[in-house]
Amino acid sequence: MPLSYPRPHRPNPARRLAAAVTTALLAAGVLVGCSGDDGPQRTVDAFLAGWRSGDLQAVGLIDPLGSKLPSADVAREIKDLSGELAATPPKLTRRGEPKITKDIATTTVQVEWTLPGQTRWAYDREVRLAHGDDDQWQVIWEPKVVHEQLTKGDRLALRRDPGARAAVLDNAGKPLVTPRPVVRVGVQPNAVTDLKKLVKDLDAAFKAIRPALVPGVDVADLPDRVAKAEPGAFVEVVSLREEAYLQIKPRIYDLPGTKFITDKIDLAPTREFARALLGSVDQAQADDLAAHPDRYVVGDLVGHGGLQGRYDERLRGGPGLTVVVERPAEGGKLEPTGAELFRREPQPGQALKTTLDVAVQNAADGALRAEPRRSALVAIRISDGAVLAAANGPGPAGENLAFDAQVPPGSTFKMVSTLGLLDRGAVTLDGPVDCKKTFTVDGRSFKNSDNFELGSVPFRTDFAKSCNTAFAALAPKLGGDGLAAAGRSLGLEGQWDLGTDAFTGKVSTGGSLAEQAAASFGQGTTLVSPLAMAGATAAVARGRFEQPKLLIDPAPAKPAPAGEQLKPESVKALRTMMREVVTAGTGSALKDVPGEVYGKTGTAEYDDNPAHTHAWFVGWRGDVAFAVFVEKGGASTASAVPMAERFLRALPTP
Fold first, then answer.
1. Which domain holds residue 622?
2. Can you give the pLDDT at residue 6?
3. Residue 278 within any structural domain of the chain
4. Among 216, 238, 267, which residue terminates a domain?
5. In this protein, which residues make up the domain named Penicillin-binding protein dimerisation (predicted)?
6. What is the pTM of this model?
């Protein structure tokens, strides 16, 4: 067979040039890694991808002494070093090409962590590589690759510092909700001698607190909680305001097993103080943590309901974050080393300034305090529309009946229909309008409260005595949409922006003649809220509609525009009639209240049984307009009017 000879070597000019450049760079001590498949950057990129994924099998790894390391061990150590940040691996970016010095390559990597609240923590680290005998680049692994201050066994940990929660302010700029003393009532399991008796005694004591706690304290699950707790644990039952605790202290202090911790919690001036409107501030609940795991942690204070809930992010501000290093101590427990690697200072919350007036709100709450039925009272300053008070009586926690109720207004709506009739010239103060015992429209019979009749009397008397049949007879003079037009001129059905939810009313329009007759005195399909009626009453007193205002800062983005000026002659006559309601009509129980009180009573049927009625009173004195509502309150003179009297007597006389 023929012999094979090696071909003569012929130098390649390009290789000869590259070799010359390499020699020159090595002489200088540094070589920038090229981008070919055999360059160190390929290994760096594979290492960074494996760091994030937790799979480093594609990367050769050695320790600083050159010993090979199993990829799974390094992946596990990276996860351990990451500690509390392990669930969100960092974004890793190689900066430029590796620099090579003999058999060692060094590359800069940006490590960028995303901490809770989308906080960015970024820094640069160096990754070193060694060129092995197998012509492959291997990553030199050591803990400081993750961070320069980390050593073997360390862990990154997060310390979270909540920001100072801002206050909800009153109209004078003073905090409504401030730290106030409370007593945390609890049970220590190993000190209880008779759990069944203890539960019974605690339940009786809590029910004896006045005014009654709303919602009440439920101790039904206390035996189960005590059974599951550690023997020396403090099983909290309820946190009571200091004044409530002192009422029942003699009954519960010496009960075997009870324990007490004094504390301070952000609270309003009183337990009832604008409770539903303001909402509450409590420790984060399970549903808070589940819905916003990136926002809340156990122990955080969170706003629930009302303004506290709606503006929670503004009020709570931003928590501070500190990345610290922890290290196992004796027994393996992790303890801080004192090293802080990153810090973001807590951001205090921003205050919420409202129009609420403490004295007026206290008067409103006091007026409702003795009423066992669901009730509400809204007060508005006539001169500028500021909501001074929004009180709610007993009812589900967080229910803001004052703003959200959708109920018939009853005869308080005669204020609206009278304005419409006066605007159309259909009635005058002294023009006679027959007040019959009954009045029938399309087969539907209407009657007056207690079946009274007045005969032919001046219209002002029909209004003051609240004659339903007179208004039913006048309904055709309003036309199909006259009542709705009058209501809208007073702001009803408007697109109000108060910075919180509110129902502005729905006024009956069109419909059958019987529906129009019913709507003329607040029955039929017309629905309102106490806030809507207080706003309408303030508009009559002012002479034009001005949207009620609740928030000053932040100011609502789109408040309703002010209404047109009401006809002076119409509102003058209407005011005269509303004054006569108090001096000689259904609101005469208020005639000895100091100052000039104007108003209109209302009894509203809410189902097909005429005996089932809500009670209303709307009116004003001085610069304060208000609406009182009592659900299933029966006759307004027996419930709403006395409530209005308590409210007015508690206010300074204008």
1. 358-650
2. 36
3. no
4. 267
5. 161-331
6. 0.79
